[in-house]
Fold each of these.
Amino acid sequence: MAGKSGKQTVRDMILSLGVIVAIAAGIWIFVPHDDSKDPVKRVDYRVELATAQRAAAYPVAAPEGLPKTWKPTSVRYRAEDGDAWHLGYLDPHEKYVAVEQSTKDPAEFIESVTQEARKAGAATSINGREWQPYKGDRYDALVLREGKSTTVVTGSASPAQLKAFAAALRTTDAADATTSASAEPSPRAA
């Protein structure tokens, strides 16, 4: 009697497994999925940018005039976190680039957003401002220190792409941003 019960248990498990595999295969076949679609979604950062421009203690930078092949993917502004602005992009080669700004301690902030990159070489002039290059194991960066704020362009993109992104950065004075919410702010080079 015990031998017959054991055979039924194994047979029942195999039948149950067959039913589960058949159901999973049916779901996979009939549920639409398109692997060609890009999983990274483009974000609209205009509201967050306007908020940061009104609240930040420094001119907030965002790129203007980049081709559509540059895709904005992440945005945040945190006044309670050292007045921190972040805007992340994917460049045309699907490499990450971001502008990070803050009034935090510059050394701590730079180390954090560049993932411990270190100064590398002489400063480079972009739009009349001196950006210090940084090199890291994961991210490279360009750093601009002005007044009480630090602006960092960082990411896994090539140095040429980091420079192109930094060159596209524009800022708006808080007075310009509050004058007319529907008007285009007048940019000035970052």
Note: The chain is about 35% helix and 30% strand.
Amino acid sequence: MANNIKLGLKLFVITAVVGLALAFVNSVTAPVVAENQAQKLKESLSVVYPADSYDEIEVADKPDSIKNVYQASSAEGDGYIFQINVIGGYGGDIEYLLAVGDDNNILGFAPLEHSESAGFGAEMEQAFFKEGMVGVSMDDEVGYSESGSENEIVGISGATISTSTIVKGINDAREVLTKIN
């Protein structure tokens, strides 16, 4: 019985020391990780909407899929970038950036994180899909089709769930856009 108590105390001490060591390492690396994530986000913002500055703006009662909204300002004009994370993709959540100009037309799209299938939903990373978004008006509800149109993005063939999920996020951004314009 005494040996069991000694063994239990030894395990407790080892666990406590390892726990403290992990907490220390986390406290040292957390700011570095946060800075790296902020830098990556800033680079991604500049890909979808090259601007002089990006200011995060607060929006009351925004849909859960809209993580952040940034106002992008440049000499050419102002616009918005929506950081969107939509639940319901074929492989899970789809997180992306969507840039919208002052005329309510989509200017850019950049996937951030997803687990969509290669050859299907992962096609969102291809130029044809990103370019198929540019110029789509968000004045009315956005949909998708094989060829796209004024209010439709170009859908991904064979990836209806992924495309529908992305469109849901776009329409959530449209809802926010009506509040901030």
Note: The longest helix spans residues 2-48.
